[in-house]
Give the backbone structure.
Amino acid sequence: MNLRSLTLALFAATLSVSASAGQLACPELAAAVQVNACPSEEELKFTYNGYCSDNAKAYANQTDSCVRYEDYRQMKNTARWESKDGEFDGYVSCDLPANKVKALKATGMKVVAQGKLTKLVCTYPSGINFTYRTKGACKLLDEKACAGDAANCQASCDMPGARQAMTLPVIIDIEASGFGKGSYPIEIGYFMPDGSSFCTLIRPEASWTHWDSSAEAVHGIAREQLASHGKSAVDVCLALNRNLRGQHVYCDAWSYDYVWLSLMYDAVDLVPSFVFRDIRELLSECEKSLWHATRSQVEARLALQRHRASGDARTLFETLLEARRQCTGDLIV
C-alpha cells in the first residue's frame, strides 16, 4: 500500500465510530511488567545538560529540577510499566526494586479530564500512578465505596470502537557525531504530512570537535562532508524556525534529539519556533505493540538509505500510518 492509500485509509477509519461501555478496576501490580530499560547514569547526565540548558524555558521545563542534578535524576530516573493487559501504564522510579513495585496495592482511583481525553488514574504508594486513557467518558460506579476500599473500586468507561481522526504529524530526525558528552548534531531532516521533506548537513561549530567512528559507520557521514557540504548552525535554525513555526514536531528518540537540538540553538542564541515532542505520545497501546515489527516491514518496503535524517523521518511517518491502519481495521481504499 502506498503513502497516499495509507493516508486515505487512516481518514476512512475515522468516519464511523461506535461505542460500548466497559468496567475497569485498578490493576494488580503483581502481574505488571516493566516495558523499557532504566536510563544509565551517563544517559541521565547527558540529558541533564540539555534539559537544563538555556533553552529550557522555551519548552516550559520545570526549572526547579535543574537547580541540582540530584533533583533532575529523581524526576527522570524512571522506567515505564504496564498492567498485564496493557490498558494501564505508569512511570516508576528505577530506585524502587521490581519486587517492591509488584507488592504495591492501589490506594485510590479518580477520573481526570485532560482536553479531549479522559484519564482513569489509579494511585499506589511511593507516589506511583497507573493511568488508563480514553476519548470516551468515564465515571466511578460507587464513589463512597472507592473512598473506603480502593481494591474494590470500579469505573465505567465508554469504549470507542475506533479512534477519532488525528492530525497527521510532522516527523523529525537528527543524526549526531556520536553519543554522550561532547556529541553534537550533524544532520537534521523532517517529513511533512503532504509528502514533502527537508534535510541538511550541519557544519560543526568551532567547539564541536567530538567524533565517534563507530557512529560514522552507522550513519555513513564523514566529518569532511560536514565542512564541505554542511550549512551553518544559524542557517539551519533559521530554516527550521521559518518552515516549522507554531507546529508540534515528533521524534522517536526524544531524550537524545532534544539535547542535540538544544545544543544547536544555544550555540547561535536562538529559540525554536516549534514544539519538540515524543512520538510515543501519539501511539495507542495497540500501535505500541506493533511498532517494532511494523517499522521493520516499512524499512524493507521503502528500501531507503538508513540512518539519514529525512529517510528515517519518512520511515517513522509511514510506520505510524501503517500501525494505525492495522489497529483500526484493514481497510481497502
Observations:
- The domain at 170-328 is CATH 3.30.420.10 (Nucleotidyltransferase; domain 5).
- The two ends are 9 Å apart (CA to CA).
- Residues 10 and 325 are 6 Å apart (CA to CA).
- The first helix runs from residue 3 to 12.
